[in-house]
Write a structure and sequence with these properties.
By secondary structure, this protein is an alpha+beta fold. It is 44% helix and 26% strand. The termini are far apart.
Length: 684
């Protein structure tokens, strides 16, 4: 029997030695360790050698449990009071806590001695899982509280099983007792139908189904998004309802900005061209006649610059209103940008209908606008194209209408023109110039020519005017009258203008050194250059680099620059004056308010336009005007330059009138730098 019991005991020990997932310890009547398997070593950190012979209470029990453990062990041996199985927090060798579920067994060995065996199961993973589950519950509750969304759990029939919500003050109100009700019963009928349909979609197709709806509340119209997600394992659907009113308003605002002009609320360029494309498709199907009118306001820039942008904006709004009221409901008026508008005409019987509408617009615009107590007359230049006579795409029609409008400008403005192929050639030329102009500086296609200037009395050369010339391999020689306005429009005039200043001052340095003279150089400044914040610094640095005295540099400025009345122009002119360079009013007599500008700004030179000089030997009124101009300029302590002098008679008269300086073909045409460097008058 003894042998048999020992064999069983060995077999059990063998089994426990192989099972490291369980911690099994054996203790004798004095609580000394008599058995310690691998599972115990892994769980508590003590090896078998370290544990054997140690007291139960000294190994794995915290101090506060020592006495209760000793008492419980004694009671079981002596009184038969069994130690119950329970969850305990014991102690690892390193002092850390070990959570276990501990079961105990007591039996008598072959020597009639009691042995107690403890079987401990590690609860660490269980505790971790419980903690994670609790954390997720807490996190989910926090999400519900922090998220201003409504969460519903519904079944296949749309019945609400569960409900959570954070701050739902702005929602369509959900009663707290909505659980058990049909979700469709909480909404107006159109919205309820959407819930029913999308609930069915979520159940049949799975995944996520989304829709938007709107509800009228006391605070106004609110917009919501509902997302339905199918929980296949539970045959339920989670519904998340979110207030998207602000997003909806933002999207509408973006749409308004994307498709409508912010100033006039008319369709903008993008929407206008889209409507034009749609109109052309409809016309193709129905064979109806349609037309496009390209409108540009005449002299709007002068009004805008002289009266300010605020008045200009008010004027554009009034223009938009006037155009809208003048057209049929079926027609479209849009703003392309600036002072350019587009009109789309439908269902025309022929070209005469487009002409009638264009003439009506011209007539309406002859009536003055009243802006801030001022009456302003603003006329139109109109270009007209018809489909399909002048193109079959939106881009073609717009381009051709622009060309026709440009022809109306050339024809004196306040008129309309139908597109012709010749106009297309003009537009093509402009586009070619613009394209080639973009890289002309890099390709070194520009060259500065110089037209000498002379003292009238002594006939001595005192300096020159710098004039830009452009020769392009594709276009040939392009005149300044062609490319300067385009450069001004595109902004290329800024780097081109700096190129002219740099080349001119470098030439002046060489010219002064070669002749041991102190010549002057005159350079034209365009309106766009005044907007360049680096202009003054660039001029000052270039003067320094080329060792040129500021008084030797003269900037010619047309009246168009001054009419804008912008503060940056005033500041630039003041800075140029302080720098010491000379300021010359160019083309005097061709503008509107030259005398006021001469009083307002610190000009040094007045330049009489060639159109008056050419007539002084033939027209008394031109002679009298030039005489009065010279006298007025001298009274203001200004020097006078006459340009366009071509005959000896003109020079003689200018001498008699007291003109200071002259330039023109009588002396020399503009010539390249190498020729100007050696130029002498009279020529040998």
């Amino acid at each position: 029997m003894i042998v048999h019991e020992e064999a069983i005991k060995d077999a059990v020990y063998q089994l426990f030695d192989e099972v490291d997932a369980l911690s099994v310890q054996g203790y004798d009547e004095e609580r000394n360790v008599i058995y310690w398997n691998l599972g115990s070593e892994l769980l508590y950190g003590y090896t078998e050698e370290e544990a054997l012979g140690q007291k139960l209470e000294d190994l794995i029990f915290p101090d506060f449990m020592r006495e209760p453990v000793i008492a419980a062990h004694s009671d079981w041996i002596n009184k038969g009071i069994k130690i119950p199985a329970e969850e305990l927090t014991l102690r690892h060798k390193n002092g850390s806590d070990v959570s276990v579920f501990s079961s105990h067994v007591l039996f008598t060995n072959e020597h009639n001695k009691h042995e107690m065996y403890c079987i401990d199961i590690n609860l660490a993973e269980v505790r971790q899982a419980q903690a994670q589950a609790q954390f997720k519950d807490n996190m989910l509750e926090a999400v519900f509280e922090a998220t201003p969304d409504v969460f519903l759990l519904i079944d296949e029939n749309g019945t609400i099983i569960d409900y959570h919500a954070g701050d739902n003050e702005d929602f369509y109100v959900f009663p707290k007792d909505c659980i058990g009700q049909s979700v469709s019963s909480l909404f107006p009928q159109p919205v309820a139908r959407k819930f029913t349909v999308h609930n069915a979609i979520a159940f049949t197709k799975g995944g996520i189904s989304t829709f938007e709806y709107e509800v009228e509340l006391a605070s106004g119209t609110r917009y919501f998004e509902a997302r339905l997600s199918h929980l296949n394992a539970y045959k339920q659907v989670v519904v998340i309802i979110r207030d998207i009113t602000e997003q909806h308003k933002a999207a509408e605002s973006i749409r308004q900005h994307a498709y409508f002009d912010s100033l006039t609320s008319l369709p903008n360029r993008f929407l206008s061209l889209d409507r034009l494309s749609q109109m052309l498709k409809e016309a193709q199907r129905s064979k109806e006649k349609v037309a496009l009118l390209f409108l540009d306001l005449d002299d709007f820039k002068k009004v805008n610059d002289s009266l300010g942008h605020e008045v200009g904006d008010k004027l554009l709004k009034e223009v938009a209103n006037k155009l809208t009221l003048a057209l049929r409901k079926a027609d479209t008026v849009g703003r392309l940008g600036g002072d350019e508008f587009i009109v789309l005409l439908r269902s025309l019987t022929g070209d005469s209908d487009a002409i009638d509408i264009a003439e009506n617009l011209l007539e309406i615009f002859r009536e003055p606008f009243e802006i801030d107590g001022k009456e302003l007359v603003l006329t139109l230049s109109i270009g007209i194209v018809t489909y399909t006579k002048n193109g079959d795409s939106a881009s073609d029609l717009l381009r051709h209408a622009d060309a026709a409008m440009y022809q109306s400008k050339l024809s004196g403005r306040n008129t309309y023109s139908f597109f012709t192929k010749e106009m297309s050639d003009v537009m093509l030329r402009r586009l070619e110039i613009e394209e080639q102009l973009n890289h002309a500086l890099q390709r070194e296609e520009f060259e500065v020519y110089y037209q000498p200037k002379f003292d009238v009395k002594s006939k001595k050369m005192i300096g020159a005017e710098a004039l830009l010339r452009w020769r392009n391999p594709l276009l040939g020689n392009v005149t300044p009258d062609e490319f300067i306005p385009i450069a001004e429009h595109t902004g290329m005039i800024v780097p081109i203008g700096k190129y002219v200043v740099k080349q001119s001052l470098a030439f002046l340095n060489n010219w002064n050194t070669t002749h041991q003279q102190a010549y002057t150089i005159a350079v034209n400044l365009s309106p766009r250059q005044f907007r360049d914040k680096t202009l003054i610094g660039f001029i000052e640095q270039t003067l320094h680099d080329e060792n040129i005295a500021p008084k030797s540099l003269e900037f010619e400025i047309t009246e168009g620059v001054l009419m804008a009345g912008n503060s940056y122009i005033d500041d630039a002119l003041q800075n140029l004056h302080q720098l010491g360079v000379k300021l010359s009013m160019d083309d005097f007599g061709t503008g509107y308010s030259s005398l006021s500008y001469l009083r307002q700004y610190s000009f040094d030179v007045l330049k009489i336009d060639r159109s008056f000089i050419s007539g002084i030997t033939e027209k008394k009124e031109d002679l009298d005007l030039v005489k009065a101009t010279i006298a007025m300029a001298h009274s203001l302590d200004l020097s006078v330059v006459a340009e366009g002098v071509e005959t000896h008679e003109q020079l003689f008269l200018l001498d008699e009138l007291g003109c200071d300086l002259v330039q023109g073909y009588y002396f020399s045409k503009p010539i390249p730098a190498e020729n100007a460097l050696d130029f002498r008058y009279p020529a040998n």
